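Pipeline run #58 for the internal structure catalog. This entry was flagged by the ingest filter as a single-chain record with no existing model, so it goes straight to prediction. Upstream metadata was stripped on purpose; only the residue string is passed forward. Reviewer on rotation: M.T. Logging verbosity set to normal.
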Amino acid sequence: MTEARAHGTKRIVAAFAAARAAGRGALVPYLCAGDPDRETSRRLLAAAAEAGADAIELGIPYGDPLADGPTIAAAAQRALEGGTTIDDALALAADAAGPGRPPLLLFTYFNPILQFGLERFAAALAAAGACGAIVPDVPLEETATIRAAFAPHGLALPLLVAPTTPAARAATIARASEGFTYLVSRLGVTSARSEPDFRWLAERVAALRGVSGLPLAIGFGISTPEHVRRACEIADGAIVGSALIDAYAGTSGDEAVERAGRFLRNLFAGTRVA
């Protein structure tokens, strides 16, 4: 890995390491750019940082999201109806990724990147101060073009491991991942209404420890402080999206910011591990 390519990975790894040095796991909230509107979205990103987020995922709204459940899909639809574009999402990322802020990753799908232009997208990500992007619908064997575009800008490409991923392939994915490895907690799409399979997660984390040396973070179905606690005991961090969006759904402005901040502060209390 070149020094440039390592830059985004180093920032993300450092955030997980700082959390662990403080005796806790990392909290990684997901927010959808432009939901419920662009100004509230900007304030929600700031509120997430103030509530203790160690890193932030910012979703680019998309009308055909393969991995997103009803809550995030509805948030994306609201953002699209409000006119939010990729350029708007990048502007929000630039505002949220200033000095002293948590490292930020964009979450998107390959078709929007392709339409925007891969090289243009990589350059815009770097210009916005983002650390990289998560692109869940691109399998490992087809990530070469994204890596080639990201590498000169020092952008990371974290990869996902699902419950159905065979052990040998999971190890290969973990070795190829950058920043952290994203462990999907259960089958299906994102949702706060289905319990994570912590037994499977404990087995998968034990198998992947030491494979790449990168942090392991658990997402999909993490919705309570107890979920966060169990995820942080097993792995290096917890990713929370649907439950956070549910916490402020139907509101905007001050009320949305207050609800999101309160919800994240409650989750943050679950990050501490013995």
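catalog note: Confidence is low (pLDDT under 50) at residues 1-5, 188-192.
catalog note: The domain at 3-271 is CATH 3.20.20.70 (TIM Barrel).
status: ready for reviewer M.T.
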